[in-house]
Amino acid sequence: MKLPLALVTLLSCGALAQHTSNWAVLVSTSRFWFNYRHLANVLSMYRTVKRLGIPDSQIILMLSDDIACNPRNAFPGTVYNNADRALDLYGDNIEVDYRGYEVTVENFIRLLTDRVEPDTPRSKRLLTDDRSNIFIYMTGHGGNEFLKFQDAEEISAFDIADAFEQMWEKKRYHEMLFMIDTCQANTMYSKFYSKNILATGSSKLDESSYSHHADNDVGVAVIDRYTYYNLEFLENNVQSASSKHTMKDLFDSYETEKIHSTPGVRTDLFKRDLKDVLITDFFGNVQNVEIDGEDEQKWKEDVLQLSKLAVDFTMPGRKNGTCASARESAETSAPAVKKVGAVRVEGSKGWSRNAMGIGALLTCAAAWVAGSALT
Amino acid sequence: MSERLGPDVAATIASAASAAVAESKIFPESAVSISQGKKSPPPDTPENTRVRSLVILSFWVVVITVGLPLWWITTAIYRAPLPLKEMQSWADGRACRAEFPLLIDVEALTLPDPEGLLKTVQHALDDANDFSAHHLRLRLSTNSSKVEDGEESVAATLRLSQGAAGSPHSYVLSPSSRAIDLFYSPSYNPTTLSAFVASTLQEIFAEEQQMISYLLASSAPAPSPSPSSGGGNGGNGVKVVNKVNTAEIARKMSRIVKYSPMYHLTFSLFTAAGDPSNWEIEEAVSEYLQPLLDALGGISGFTVDSQIQFYASLSSSVVPTWVPDSEKEEGEEGEEGEESASGRYILKKEDLSSFINSAEWPLVSITSYPAINFIIYIPAADQSPLVIPTSSTNAFLLPQWGGVMIHNPPAGSDNTHLTKEALKPALDIFATQLLSLLGAPTHPASLPIRLDSLTRQRSAELLVSASSTLGSLYRLTLALPSISIPSSVSTSVSSTLSSLTAACQELRHGRFGGALEEGRNAEEQAEKAFFEKSMVGQVYFPEEHKVAVYLPLMGPVGAPLLMAALKEISRLVRVWKASRLKK
């Protein structure tokens, strides 16, 4: 326990150095057809993080409405983020985790803090740990320090800040990127106080965020400006997960004239220099790899053979001591529970069943005849 | 106005007015207003005033005695009492000083003075040890001591015996048991022998010690260095060694999957073509892997499943490079060697990091406990053989996730079926990878000792993580005073505390299995307490919200109440002043 201070700091630096998984939480909070662009924003981000390698199991997609199947959609089953309609965002590989009225403030906070019902499916949970980088993207209608959900309720900047603090306390993330596209977006991250959060928003206090352009056939605006220019940068520069572009490049690409509002970046909670933060640290999923047999040649022993030989020592060793019963129960329940797959149902071929069926039919028929004869 | 009211009413008002005029003689001040034509209500009889005062009073009594407490009780946030002090002391690591005393039996039947040797070795070990929580205890084993083995597990048995004449001291570690056979040279010198024994034991348990000290150190909150920490055993050399290894240990720790009482193992066969169409994975797992899983059963349980995915393509960013055999080392980017007959496709390290095509490969687990994936990838015939040049086994490990092996079936053989025997090499690799994913030390060759080490490591991990969860909960309850704390949290916390105390006791007595069991319970209860689902709610309400909620309710009710009270009080004051004036 009494390790020298230098060692302790060294340890903490080592622990900070890398993440092992990437997660994304993508939330659109607006309902109704005319908010088409918010869903398109989120689906575009979804496409981007998926393109850069974050698996669906690590993306929590919250879509507050189903505009693809809205009766007013002239292109049923599709969502486009551009008037050229070159890319259907609602293609065949979409996994929506929270849909429609499930997208509520409560569910969002429950998701972040993992205070969920015990029977919540894995796909609806943010199962992160202290080595996970999380990218949180939110879009909708908001105002000073709040964001509306479903036109019915709102989440305040304080709520999000407290939720993030709880996540930090429980070591539920390593680093976080918070991106929000809404009116007065920068107020939403102004209340954060937890470590290792990098935040960016589309507009400052008393500024609106604007949509980029409308598709006349769809009839509504299809994407917001801030998201549009983010995507433009990501599409043009970050082609694959091995891209070396940094967050600084992304933030430097923001231009107020184009976005029509003042995008903000908050870095005071974030430890690393933005020049060293790869975009794929948040948008992609680059797995660390340890190549087998690269350096640890010396202990290439046959573990399987050993485990067989060592049975006498590993198993009886478990049977003594005070914990024997607990261990035994663990053993009996634990090892390799076989999953029951599909079982072929054997049709019984015996005559007895057929006879019984015929008998039942005949009885019914007799009863019917008797009944009609009596009346 | 009087036309509309009708003659009767008008008459009444008129009479009342005249009454007021009559009265105005008594109160000359009010006469002014009367003279301007404004009519005032008839004076209250003393009876009326009294009744009105009582009515107002009774309203206020109801509001104060019933309304206020009701409002207070219904809007109060229930916060179950938590043993905050204890929680904090656990979080700071003050409540329990985790100890890992390892008992080592020494059998020295041929040695003349085993006690003396033991004493010197013990001294040497204690002196060299700068991490006192993890220490080795030697015990001279006699046959009778076997009986009491039940209460404390023996970490290893050291068997001293005489080696061949002229040979130096040496030791052999049995790979499948806890026995260390140490052969001392017949012409031994007690000091060198004791030094050798001490260094042997240290070497065997060094890795475990480092891991545990890393775990416990990382638990300590922001370093608050005590001035004495630099002093002590003066093992400067040892510390340097520690520092050198820190990066290595951090790397090792970063690949470990978080402890869970259950894991799910998925064995996947991804083939770039349509064959092999089946594999004897079930037989292979039950024959080769099962003994290992059984051995690990005391620490964690496992469920196993398998899948085959045909025509599984690599993601587009992974492009293997063709390297003809002749120029293996030189030009990796050399000319497209399609015409060259023999050669191989190699995967660079960047390719490997995005090798898993998570968009298309079905690797999602639906179990509630963590999954570990093992993948065998068989490349298409036109991309075969696919090789990782730096790997001797053509395999790699993804930290906290699983392992991948690229299998190139021998050319010309029947590729439609993967037999048990063909899977054996892959399972060998997966077994090693599984052990390192679970965190078993790589060092001593003996599997039982490694598994024991794993038990101790996992107990340390659980202890640390449950304590830190308690600390998080402690800080959370202080930081968010408006969050409610149901009584179930308080029960879970006290259960966590008792389990932690028990685990600490078990550790101190060297019963590591029991410690793991208690640690598991502590962790589970601590998680339950922290993730109590009713501890959510919109915690923050801005002031405007409160005004918006209370005003419509309090406005209509509160305004008449307040005005009535004010009027009544001013009347009383007036009466009181008048009575004083009279006097």
Automatic annotation (TrEMBL), chain A:
Which top-level group of life is the source organism from? Eukaryota
Which keywords label this protein? GPI-anchor biosynthesis, Signal
Q: Which Pfam families match?
A: Peptidase_C13 (PF01650)
Q: GO CC annotation: what is one?
A: GPI-anchor transamidase complex
Q: Which residues form the signal peptide?
A: 1-17
Q: In which pathway does it act?
A: Glycolipid biosynthesis; glycosylphosphatidylinositol-anchor biosynthesis
InterPro entries the UniProt entry points to: GPI_transamidase (IPR028361), Peptidase_C13 (IPR001096)
The active site lies at 141, 183 (nucleophile)
* Gene3D superfamilies, alphabetized: 3.40.50.1460
Q: Which residues, by range, are in coiled-coil regions?
A: none
Keyword Signal included in the entry's annotation? yes
| A single MF term (Gene Ontology) | GPI-anchor transamidase activity
> What processes in GO biological process is this protein linked to?
attachment of GPI anchor to protein; GPI anchor biosynthetic process; proteolysis
What is stated as this protein's family in its record?
Belongs to the peptidase C13 family.
Full protein name:
Peptidase C13 family-domain-containing protein
Q: Which organism is it from?
A: Tuber borchii
TrEMBL record, chain B:
Q: Which GO terms describe its cellular component?
A: GPI-anchor transamidase complex
Q: What domain of life does the native source organism fall in?
A: Eukaryota
Keywords of this entry: Endoplasmic reticulum, Glycoprotein, GPI-anchor biosynthesis, Membrane, Transmembrane, Transmembrane helix
Could you tell me which residues belong to the region Disordered?
322-343
Q: Name one GO biological process term.
A: GPI anchor biosynthetic process
Which Pfam families does this chain map to?
Answer: PIG-S
The record's annotation in InterPro entries points to: PtdIno-glycan_biosynth_class_S
Which cell locations does it reside in? Answer: Endoplasmic reticulum membrane
Q: In which pathway does it act?
A: Glycolipid biosynthesis; glycosylphosphatidylinositol-anchor biosynthesis
Major location category of this protein: endoplasmic reticulum
Q: What is this protein called?
A: Phosphatidylinositol-glycan biosynthesis class S protein
**Origin species:** Tuber borchii (White truffle)
